[in-house]
Structure formats: C-alpha cells, structure tokens
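User: Round two. Same drill as before: sequence, then structure, for each protein.

Assistant: Same drill it is. First protein:
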Amino acid sequence: MTQQGKRPQRGAASGPRRAHPPKRPSGPARPPSEDQARRAALDVLRAVRADDAYANLVLPKLLRDRRITGRDAGLATELAYGACRARGLLDEVIAACCDRPLAKVEPQLLDALRLGAYQLLRTRIPAHAAVAATVDLVRNDLGSRVTGFANAVLRQVAERDEAAWLDKLAPAADEDPVGNLAAHTAHPRWIARAFADALGTTGDELAAALRADDSRPLVHLVARPGEVSAEELAAMTGGDPGPYSPYAVHLDAGSGDPGALDPVREKLAGVQDEGSQLCALALTRVPLEGGDEAWLDLCAGPGGKAALLGALVGISGGTLDAVEQTPHRAALVERITSGLPVKVRVADGRDPGLPADHYDRVLVDAPCTGLGALRRRPESRWRRQPSDVGDLTKLQRELLTSALGLVRPGGVVAYVVCSPHLSETEGVVAAVARKTGATVLDARPSFPDVPHLGEGPYVQLWPHRHGTDAMFCALLQR
C-alpha cells in the first residue's frame, strides 16, 4: 500500500465524513493526562520519523531511562513496534478520513494519529479510551488548536474495523493477489513482490511469509563457544536451546532488554538471530585442504558474527581479521570481540589493503536492504525503497569480488545477506562467479538438520519456515 496516497473507492457505499482542522480552538484547554506507555510509544515514532532512528534501539533505552516496566512497558512495546510495522495501512486509513493530503498534516500530529489509529484497528483497547488518550497527547504537545481535528479523524477511523477498512481500500485479490496480500499484511507492494519472486508463489506460502513479518519474534542469544554451552545459557536466562544452531538460545519476546542479562554483560553470550549464527557457522563447516588458521570477516560491524567466528578460530589457535569501514562501528566490533584473537581494521572491504591469496576462510556479510529482518526492524519496510537495490547490489558484487581475491586458492568464501531479494542473492553470486571463475558450492550440507532448504546450491532461510530471519547464504570456493 502507498504510505500517503489515496485509492479510488470501490462499490456504492459512501465513505465517512472527512475531518478538517478547526479554525479556532475547540473549547477551553484542560490539563493533559500523561500516559507514560503511550508517551514512550509516541516518542519512538517521532524518533523514527525525525531522526531515522531504529525503533528496536530507541525503545529499550527509553524504557530503561524512564523506568517503565511491567504492563506499561508491554503496552509501549506493542504500540511502538506495531505502529511502525503497520504505518502504510494506518496512513491509508487516516488519509481516507482527512480532507487534505497527509503531507499537509503536521508531522507531530500525524505521528499521534498513527498511534491512535493503531490502537483502534489492531488492539483491544476500547475506542473511547484510544481516542481520548491520543487527544490528550496531542493537546500536551501541540495545544488545543488541533485537538478537535485529531478527535474527528480518530472517531472516523473507529467507524470501521481493520477488515472493513481493508475491504474498502485494498486491491481486489482476483485482480492483484500480491497487492491484496501486501495490504492485508501491511507491506509495500514491491517488498511483497520480491518475496513472491524468491518463493516462486503468490499463494498460501507468500501469505505465510508476509504474516511472519507481522509477528513479534523471539529474542535469540548466541552462547560464546569455549565459554558456555547453549544448555548452560538457557539455564541462566530461563530460555530454551535453539533447534538448529548449537549455540542458540531462544527467549520469550516479552522477556525485557536482553542487553541487561548477566551472561550478555559478562560476554558469555550475545544477541544474535539463529539464522545469522547458522550462516557464520556454514563458513566453518566446509572441509579444506591445507592450513586453516587465517580467517577474515570483511564487513564486520557491528560484530556479532566476528565474535562467533573469533571464538571458534581461537579454539584451534587461529586468528580473525575483522574489517569495518566506519570508525564508530569498528569500535563496536573491538568492544564485542575483546579478549578474542581478533584484529579490527578500519578499511573499505572493497580495497582493504590486506594481502591477496592469504585467508583460508572469508565471510562477506554484505550491506543489504535488510528485507529479511523486517520483523525485528518494523520501520524498515517503509524506509527502504526499490531504488536502494541497484546501489546495494553494485556494492555487494564489489565486496564479494574483493573477498575472492583475498582468499587463498582452495579457500572458501561465504556470501551472506539478510534479504531474500533475488537481485541481492542469486543475482550477485551468479554475476561474480561468472566474472571470477569461482566455484559455487552446495551450501545445504553446511546447514545440518535444517529442513526445507530447497534445491540448492544456495540456502535461503525464512521466518515462517525456520523461525529465523530471512538470511541468504552462498558458499564459493576459489
């Protein structure tokens, strides 16, 4: 669905009256009633919009700083992440209740309308409570001059439930099945199309893949090899060992800030999706002839895979070089890998100044659209644009080509992206393999006991199939 556009209405039924802002304040101002859960959620929406912030980074710190816990923290989390995730749908509905383009609505007011509309359409909060609480936030931030407008828009939103609004606004399933599914799962159509192309279907599995992005994911931890086992970490945290990675532990999505857990603070564990762990481990599972002591992470920031690889290579007496172009991200890598045989280098992975033909194993965890982690970064689906793909695929090809020049003959390179977009996955690998003559290996044996891996030679993980982010992994041998 478009974020701010309006679709022609189908059918004979007329829409609700459109709201317009009053010319004068509607009644005397009254002291606002501050709601700390909704206030926190609204502040997250504003940080995402105004500062290009990531909700999953802003909210935990905000909850800690304001000492919001328990049910209030749970409500703030549901509202903040949910409104970010459903923004396109919310904007369509708000636009249908407004007499002007959303671009003409004050950004702060639009943030509040999104928060209120989310409560009305996707929670069990009573309509009168959702409207009143949102209007209080508007009054607190913008004064009484626009409270009448906010009240009128939200009351019109409340005249239909989500299903009825979708019947009114979504394209017909028989005319545009991808667009219909995109609307019903609050995805931009181009992302739904990319998922359909990767899955090879516009049917039930596409619906399942898109719905998986709308669910709150479990928190995944990684136990540091040589320090603690997954079973021990599960006992420490109250979690459960993951089904596929020998180092994974799953925690309930409502278990609080994982960064505050003792094993994480003590560097016995880190926060890392199980699919990300599996892709890093796949690099280590390809049998090699000759030496196996020099490993390289060519795009190391923020450091999760570097920490896992550094711990593993350290057990056998080897070392890992970790390249990161951005100094502040390189500092993150240094912090997370301290105490491990990891040397962090600030350099561009396309030309890092490292010796050619030197490394036994190289990981290219390339920058990508991140379409595979939309459930963890709810705002990303509306932030990314189709135009981003071209620049990213060029960078990805250059990084993978660089890696193949740094690995020794007979060595292995793992190309990993958190995306199922075919241009970023199979397209990049095929182009670089043709150019360099590298052999594309069958990656599936490096993912033991993981089901539903398809025909190969690549591995594409999916939330709805594997409970992981939609990570892609290709293994190439020089």
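Second protein:
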Amino acid sequence: MNVFVFDIETVPDVEAGRRLHGLEGLSDADVGKAMFHLRQQESGSDFLRLHLHRVVAISAVYAGPGSLKVASLGAPEADERELVQTFFDVIEKKTPVLVSWNGGGFDLPVLHYRALRHKIQAPRYWDMGGDDRDFKWNNYISRYHTRHLDLMDLIALYQPRANAPLDQIASLLGFPGKMGMSGAKVWDSFLAGDIEGIRNYCETDVLNTYLVYLRFQLMRGQLMPEQYESECRRLRDYLAAEGRPHFDEFLAAWQED
C-alpha cells in the first residue's frame, strides 16, 4: 500500500482581498493586515475563511513497500498553481491512501478552492464511482471512506468536541510536535521571503502526522509491534542519512518510549 501523508501551509490570498474588499493600492502586508482585521470583526478570530487562503507549501511523506521519502512539492520558487497541480498529479498517477491531520476540515477544502481558481483537473481524486466502480465504495471524498484518512476526525470519532491539536497529540506520544515555527507565523515568514523556512516547518509537521499514523496503524492491528518498530527505525535511518538540519533537530527531539 502506498501512503501519501500531507500538510499544507497558507497565507492570505491578497489578490482576492483586494478584489473582494476594495483594497487596491495597498501593499501585500497592508492587505493581509486588513483581511485579518475584517475577519476578527466578523467572527472574533482572525483565522480567514478557507477560500481566502493561498497555498505556499505542500509537504509530504511518501511511504510504500521499499520506498520512503520526505519532501516538499515543487521547487521553492514554484507558483501556487504548480504546487496544487503536483499534489493532484500524485493522486492521478499513484492513487495512494491520503493521510492528514484535519485534512478534511482545512487542507483539502483549501486545495479544492485553489484548484477551482487555477482550472486544475483532478478526475481520479473526484471519482465517486463513475469512472472506477471500486470508487463507489471507497473514494477520497466521502467522510467515512478510507482513501483519505483524516486522523484527527477519525480518532475523535467524528465528534468536533473531541478534536485535538496535532502538536499536543504528537508530544503526548513522544514525538517532537511543533518545531521552529507555527501556522500563525507563516505569513510573517512569507513576507520576509523565508519560503525555505516555511517548507522545512511544513515537513516537520508532516513527519509528526506520519508518526501518529504509524501509531494508529499499530492500534488498529494493521502493524504488529515489530513492524511498527521497524517502520520507526526506517524513518530514523532515512532522516539521519538525509543530513538536513531540520531533520537532525527532529531526530534529537524524538523521545518516544
């Protein structure tokens, strides 16, 4: 089974902000500030509605029999359209099991809006049985199917009041949790031109998600204890061999019993 564990990082879609709120003539920083302020007045929180997010990084763990890779999609200079297209191309070519933490509540809806924005086609992803009969019973779209496992939603038994933050669950299990940044700091980092820092942060987030997924697979009996330990060793060896500073920091903070 091929698994594609993913996470996205976003910033305000300032082009949409200018269009919807009449903010022409303002800098990107000022448009973002205005968008956050308007949202705070509207809802009491400055977290923007999902259609007003722009994707600046998508990171993934690709795992399968004999294969393992941790990477961000596209080059650091890739535009949003290329990032989103690459994400759906992976599904089109490989039909992996998607794994996320709150992907059903955030990441995938944002990717849907951005695919609409950029005229991106994703027939395999959207198939619910019309092209492949197997997808009638197990597809990426239906909440209770397993081609996409939203671990937050599933572990909480689809009860929003039982949802938990990835950072806290990862830390409780002995995994590193948040490292180097937080989602709230991504906009500032983006304005400062630190795309590489955002991508590195996204990669550590997706590593936490992958480790929680392995523990979930152990809990549900899809991995035996020795298989679970083997997969953890495989990941440790991979990260050590890569020799990238944020991977080294992740390994140093990994304190699983």
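The chain has a mean pLDDT of 96.

User: Perfect.
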